[in-house]
Amino acid sequence: MKIRRIGTTDEKIELQMTPMIDIVFQLLIFFIMTFKIVSMEGDFNIRMPLKSQVASTPQATPLFVHIQLRADAQGQLLSPGGIIVNGELRFDRMEDLHNYVIGIVGVDEPGGSGEAEAELECDPNLNYEYVIEAITAVSGYVDHSTGQVQRLIERVNFTPPPDVTGP
Amino acid sequence: MRMRKRAESKILEGDLTPMIDMTFQLIAFFMVLINFSQTETDQQIQLPDSVLAKPPDQPFQYPITIQLTRDGKVRYGGQELANLNRLRPYLVNERTILTGRDRPVSDATVIIRADRRAKAGVVQRLIQVCQQEQFEKFALRAKEDMGP
Fold it and tell me: By CA distance, what is A43's nearest residue in B?
């Protein structure tokens, strides 16, 4: 049987690249335009049941630090003496508070002092960023040699707010 | 005069393969990096910074995210609430869901995403409202401060 040869001439089939490259570039531009470097977020965990549900008073803990934060009319931390510790010590900066907490808690315990407790009494007008700064100052610090977080006081609470009508 | 025959003109085809490879790699990179979990974040809220704010090792078991704007407005589930008391029905609803699943209310963690300029008094009132609805675990969210 005679077999007929098909396609004697070798024709190269060329793919149409142009539409694909168009789409690919459009996708690329879309992702570049929508790309946004989002900084990481973390949490400060606090356990705060209603006072009536708590069996013991916070003062019963061996190491109790009461921190009062006072604000000016603009909500900034009052200076001087915006940070009052245990009703007697006055600090201007969060670094001073942090050093004080290191002094009383110590840095020997790697997991932090589980028995220590800090209570924050914040001026209602104070900007929230100072509250977080104060929590950071008492909670711990980053050891730059290891990059690990060293805990100081893990139990942080708030005093109940004054009974005013909210927003 | 004898004319020299010109060489046959050829179409020069550039090799597109490396370019397409790179382009696809870039697209894959951006697709991987695009973070769809940021839907709960509110771009209008500027979180306070903290060096200790590290992302949690494991997600919360039952998170309830409440946002608080600079001017003290509460946002929950994409809705802006007129005042803190309007939050109560939603919290009751969350509590009902939890009890329906035989879970204690203490399993839930209220994540508070408050603006850095929000007032401490409002944040405390928000915590108080949640406490009154029997929630007791709170997570104060902050942005990781990478330092200078």
Answer: B141
Distance of CA B1 to the CA centre of its chain: 80
pLDDT at A165: 45
CB contact under 8 A, B144 and A69: no
Task: Tell me how close the Cα of B2 comes to any Cα of chain A, in angstroms.
Answer: 35
From A135's Cα to the closest Cα of chain B, the distance in A is: 9
Find the CB nearest A49 among B55, B131, B142: B131
Q: What angle do CA A108, A81, A155 make, to 5 degrees?
A: 35
ipTM: 0.72
Q: Are B66 and B129 in contact (CB under 8 A)?
A: no
Neighbour count for residue A7 (Cβ, 10 Å): 6
Average pLDDT of every residue of chain A: 78
pLDDT at A8 over 80: no
In whole angstroms, what is the distance from residue A133 CA to residue A98 CA?
Answer: 10
Cβ contacts of A16 on chain B, cutoff 8 Å = none
Given this model, what pLDDT does residue A167 score? 44
What is the C-alpha radius of gyration for chain A, rounded to an integer number of angstroms? Answer: 31
